[in-house]
Amino acid sequence: MTTEQRDWAATIHRLWASVATITSREQLADLVLPPLLEIPGAVGAWGLRHTTSVFRWAGLPPESVGHLVARALEATGEADPDWLAAHGVHDVVVTRFDAPGDVGGTMMVLLDGTGDRDHARTCLHQVADVTREAIRRLAAHRAEQGQQIRDALLAEASLQMDAVLDRTQTMGRVARMAVPAIAEGCLVYLCDDKGPELRSAVHIDMRRLAALLADDEVAARLETLAAEAVAAPDRRPARAEGIVPGTRFVDVQVLRARGRTSGVLIFMFERNAGDVPPAQFLHDLAHRAALALDNGELYEQRRREVVAMQQHLLPRRLPVVDGLEVAASYTVGDRVMEVGGDFYDVVVRADGVVGAVIGDVCGRGVDAAALTGMARHTLGALLQEGLSPARALGRLNASLRREGSWRFLTAGVALLRTDPRGCTVQWMSCGHPPPLVLRRGAPAETGRGGGTPIGVLPELRVGRSRLRLGPGDTLVMYTDGLTESRAPDGRMFQDAALPQALERLRDAPPETVVRQLSSAASRFGVTTADDIAVLAIGVARD
Amino acid sequence: MTDLILVVEDSAEDVEAIERAIGRSHPGLRREFLRSGAEVWPRLTAPGAALPGLMLLDLNMPGEGGLAVLRQVRADPAFDRIRIVVFTSSEDQAEADACYAAGADSYIYKPMNFALFQTVLSQTLDYWGNVARIVVPPPGDSAAQT
């Protein structure tokens, strides 16, 4: 073996050893082209990447005309002999390689008159083998990285979307996560009765997007694309060119989950084809977004039903009573997805005595709702017929015991008799929180509770007390959702904020009292986990 | 556009992550870091100061926040050529709208995962055209050239 052969063998060995360290095609060109100049007679080594206009070289540069020469050599193996001769090139050996899943290339060695064509070809093929392997490894590495990034995006997007049940926020988050990680732009269309409507739009260059969407023609093309996708949701996802000026293509993904189509995602791409994620990934992301949107829709729907059903369990209107002002409020807990058991009612007996009822059935859901309705109607009807509160409560207790219901409830009944100087209140409590009395021009007082919940013992025990309300005084009855609303640090509204709230509400009319007490407790709590019912009856001022 | 990126970021962890990410994806770009919003205006208006081609701006910083910096820079036409990319973990759409109204070129979500973080930054820099025009050195500097 000659020294020259040994040196070349060492070069090839070094190239193979370096393949694992290559992280880009630019580095690869730096690695493989210069050694080709070691071939006897070589004056230039050129590399061309197919389908792009990327040229790499060592030695003689392919100047402007040389690019054409190189392209001709790549395509036919022949080129303009005048240019070659003018640059001292007598012969060119060419090899090309294809890279499955990646852009292939052509390599060539330009020889002067002293070069041995066969030897040069052998050396070039050896270097091309190294190049081919390096490109394969680069492609595998890039694919692995791409998969990692897509996995991370899907995970992070899922976290983001799961954190909210609000559809508007969900739409904003999916678009913002996608740009620019996987696309230059992302549009979210949601379906309504009139068809898909653009509800969220994010682009890496928002000014450009605003200009594009202001173009009626472009906006109409995008909307048509969305409408077509919604009309045929099972059709394969579409990639369309020429829809948006300056964008290579758009990818349309239908937002479909649990058999329902909620809208369309349109991704806008301007990047190199190699950086565009696979359609399957876009499909997966759209499916994840569709699930989040559907969850939001189901949540909203359920919540609307809960609020509507809750309203049915409460009196449609409160009676108007001479000398008294009556007001009530009901706040559904913000994370509540089932009908709660709080109730209130106000009835006026034939003799003008007013019966006010408030109660709280344990638990939530359909069973609790049924008991809630039954309890309100029973107590309301018996009180209106003139039965004493204690007997009315006892009848309800007996009824629950007879039915063998495991549920129980707390309740409070106020019987109010007005007179020229105010009002006398007979307060009956069955395990219910004591009422509050807001005195005119004086601090608030707390009434008495007592008694046992209804439905627990065969013989009901009722806590009895009497109160006197003067003109301008207000009796406030409530359920424990008001007082037990909790701040993030665990403190309860009753201990930390109720006294101040009552002080602020001194001399306020009942309507203001119920509204502001409810909202103060809701704001105080980190979440309004429980429903809040408040019923206030004020004695008219002189 | 110049090959200088000005990063305005108060978090040490994010500074390190941005340096690492851009260093890997766009090693040819020069990075300069400011750790507070208050440093931006003196830096840009210093006599003979080299202006960045792109400013990567955190939104929530103590003292002068990113939005205030954005408004101040955009109020001076001398800095019109600087691309301003708000890079934030904020999910508040109102903040995004305010940034665009104030003249931000991009409002980019800051991912938690580093691979994603690097991709987002890389795509942003690619989009604004830094790579093609800046990173590739002029012919003749290397044995193997574009």
Automatic annotation (TrEMBL), chain A:
- Extract the Gene3D superfamilies matched here: 3.30.450.40, PPM-type phosphatase domain
| Keywords, comma-separated and alphabetical | Hydrolase
Stretches assigned to the PPM-type phosphatase domain: 325-539
GO MF term set: phosphatase activity
The name on file for this protein is PPM-type phosphatase domain-containing protein
What organism does this protein naturally occur in?
A: Actinoplanes siamensis
Automatic annotation (TrEMBL), chain B:
Q: Does the keyword Phosphoprotein apply?
A: yes
Some GO term, biological process aspect, for this entry: which one?
phosphorelay signal transduction system
Please provide the record's keywords in A-Z order: Phosphoprotein
Q: Does the keyword Cell wall biogenesis/degradation apply?
A: no
Residue ranges spanning the membrane: these are: none
A Pfam family name for this chain? Response_reg
Organism, per UniProt? Answer: Actinoplanes siamensis
Identification of the protein by name: Response regulator
- Please list the residues that carry the modification 4-aspartylphosphate: 58
Q: Domain Response regulatory: where?
A: 4-125
Matching PANTHER family: RESPONSE REGULATOR RCP1-RELATED (PTHR44520), TWO-COMPONENT SYSTEM REGULATORY PROTEIN (PTHR44520:SF1)
Q: Which InterPro entries match?
A: CheY-like_superfamily (IPR011006), Sig_transdc_resp-reg_receiver (IPR001789), TCS_response_regulator (IPR052893)
